[in-house]
Design goal:
Chain lengths: 328, 264
């Protein structure tokens, strides 16, 4: 009889164990649709992360919509499109457009910076460097371009770099001198369009994000932090750059002020699939996971990711709190 | 006379498909044309940039059609009249620009114009620029429009009895003389139609042009720019003007090329 009682005991323990583990086993497997809105420049790394996570969780279906960050944020705040995660090329957009109504917190997870791209065949390719690039761009016969400041943030950021260069290298009049050597024909709608011009040998130098340069395997000049819009420590210096871009209708204008290219990400309040969103964030912020992917693709990640205060950190879902530090 | 006419069911099928096709084309266009207010349209037509882009579109498409006419006509004649080895291949090559994705065309043309290509070097040494120039735009538009011209005119030549040309030749006229005095007067209407088709194709091109030249802006590029920068409300009026101008131009060409005593 003793033996039988023992059996009963073990069976009981077994089922108790099952009962305790069962909810976790459901919870551990993110599934269903996960909707992510993100900046166009995050497309390549996010696609890679999507592939990895969908491979790991076969029931998970990540639906990404890339687009201009301002536009994507407005789709949430004005058109009330359902979304779980919003990744922005400018972390301030999340602060301005989504917090407090549509999001509670904002994590800075990566930076980007402007670089001057070129190829082997570009004129003066052997001698260009961080010290002399602006002299080369001013030379006659050198064909260089940037994207349309009215359509593409990379376009006005390129112009900001030139303005900041004038201050940094103490070369008054540099900006006007450079623009005078850049006929309107060298401006394209999107910065990525310039890559084709470089590769076909129609253009010598083009302004791109570092990530674009790396992803397309271009050569590039890395500029000092003071002017490359890559470090938010220099936001006060960047602020001096101002570019006039078209406003809401033809003939009207507004001013864009210089600031660092710092990427921010948040989970939208009342996210339809919070569990999967937390799983994605957990992978994105893992230094051996998403941050490594970003690094490989030329988008320098913050390791660890950053939030602005302890109060913000306390608002994060528990599983991802370990991946952030409080740092400004 | 009161006998009920028996109408072939095909008649009704034809009526149905006519209505469907016309609605299919007109419905989205009417929707777009009726969106902008007269105020928007008036404002847009005062915009110098808009006028310049529409003019550039018409002008560069016109040149593309002219080039197609000059080089395409003898070529189409050859295809219509002569049988030779590899003719099928040549005819397929003509159709290639219709099938190739537009951005690929742009990149291919830029590739030739680049500094690391001998052709690009040669062109640059004599001052021909492709990137960001009207020359580049016309090159692209000719590339995409030419097949429409050649195919149309080839069919036109084929419909002219060879017999007439043979008579002319047997009476001692040269090949050139026969072409100019017999074939051309009989085929010029198909050439007009070819020019219309070529122009129409050229005016609508966007994908290849935007790669070769963003500035100066042809109308489709400007419509895209306006849409991205300001939204639908400011791109539609430009589109409406382009459609109206093209409609008038093509209508005139059609009327002009219509046979006076058309009774066939």
């Amino acid at each position: 009889m003793k033996k039988f009682e023992n059996y009963i005991k073990w069976i009981f323990v077994f089922f108790l164990g099952l009962a305790v583990l069962f909810p976790f086993s459901i919870g551990a497997e993110p599934q269903g649709k996960l909707i992510i809105f993100h900046a166009g420049s995050l497309t390549v790394p996010f696609a890679k992360m999507e592939k990895f996570l969908e491979g790991k969780y076969p029931k998970l279906d990540i639906l990404r919509t890339p687009g201009g960050s301002t536009k994507m944020a407005r789709m949430i705040s004005e058109l009330h499109k359902p979304a779980d995660i919003m990744g922005s090329a400018d972390y301030k957009i999340i602060d301005k457009t989504l917090i407090p109504q549509y999001a509670d917190w904002n994590i800075r997870f990566a930076a980007n910076q402007l670089v001057l791209c070129y190829t082997d065949k570009s004129r003066f390719a052997e001698e260009v460097n961080a010290e002399n690039w602006y002299k080369i761009l001013a030379r006659k016969g050198v064909v260089w371009g940037h994207s349309d400041p009215n359509l593409d943030p990379c376009g006005y950021r390129s112009l900001m770099v030139l303005q900041l260069a004038e201050k940094h290298y103490k070369a008054p009049g540099l900006y006007d001198q450079l623009i005078a050597n850049r006929p309107k024909e060298n401006v394209r709608a999107k910065s990525v369009d310039l890559v084709a011009l470089l590769e076909t040998g129609n253009m010598d130098y083009a302004w791109e994000y570092l990530s674009v340069a790396v992803q397309h395997g271009l050569k590039y000049v890395v500029l000092p932090d003071e002017i490359n819009l890559g470090s938010y420590k220099y936001d006060d210096f960047y602020k001096q750059a101002e570019v006039k871009v078209t406003g809401k209708k033809p003939g009207t204008w507004m001013t864009r002020q210089g600031q660092s290219c710092t990427y921010g990400i948040t989970i939208i309040k009342n996210a339809p699939n919070l569990e999967a969103a937390v799983a994605f964030m957990g992978y994105l912020m893992d230094p051996n996971g998403g941050l490594q992917v970003l690094k490989d693709m030329g988008q320098p990640p913050f390791i660890p990711c950053r939030v602005s205060s302890e109060a913000v950190k306390a608002k994060l879902p528990l599983p991802i709190q370990k991946w952030v530090e409080v740092k400004n | 006379m009161m006998k009920a006419k028996r109408v072939d069911p095909f008649f009704w099928v034809a009526i149905f498909s006519t209505v469907t096709v016309v609605l299919f084309i007109l419905f989205p266009l009417i929707e777009m044309i009726t969106q902008p207010t007269f105020n928007d349209l008036a404002e847009t037509v005062k915009d110098r940039d808009v006028l310049r882009s529409i003019w550039l579109s018409i002008y560069s498409s016109g040149i593309a059609a002219l080039i197609s006419f000059l080089v395409g006509t003898p070529f189409a004649y050859l295809l219509a009249r002569k049988e030779f080895r590899g003719k099928k291949l040549v005819e397929s090559i003509i159709d290639l620009p219709i099938m190739i994705p537009h951005p690929v065309i742009g990149i291919a043309i830029l590739g030739l114009a680049g500094r690391d290509h001998w052709l690009g070097q040669a062109m640059q040494s004599i001052g021909i620029q492709i990137m960001g120039t009207v020359t580049g735009i016309v090159t692209v538009l000719t590339f995409v429009g030419l097949p429409f011209y050649v195919n149309t005119v080839k069919t036109g030549f084929e419909s002219i009895p060879v017999r007439l040309e043979n008579v002319s030749r047997s009476l001692g006229a040269s090949l050139t003389g026969t072409f100019l005095r017999v074939t051309f007067p009989l085929a010029w209407r198909s050439m007009i139609v070819g020019i219309i088709l070529c122009c129409a194709r050229a005016i609508s091109e966007f994908g290849a042009v935007v790669i070769v030249a963003y500035h100066p802006m042809i109308a489709p590029v400007m419509i895209y720019e306006r849409f991205t920068a300001y939204g639908l409300a400011y791109s539609q009026p430009v589109a409406v003007w382009l459609i109206l101008v093209c409609l008038v131009l093509f209508l005139l060409l059609r009327i002009f090329s219509l046979p006076k005593e058309h009774k066939a």
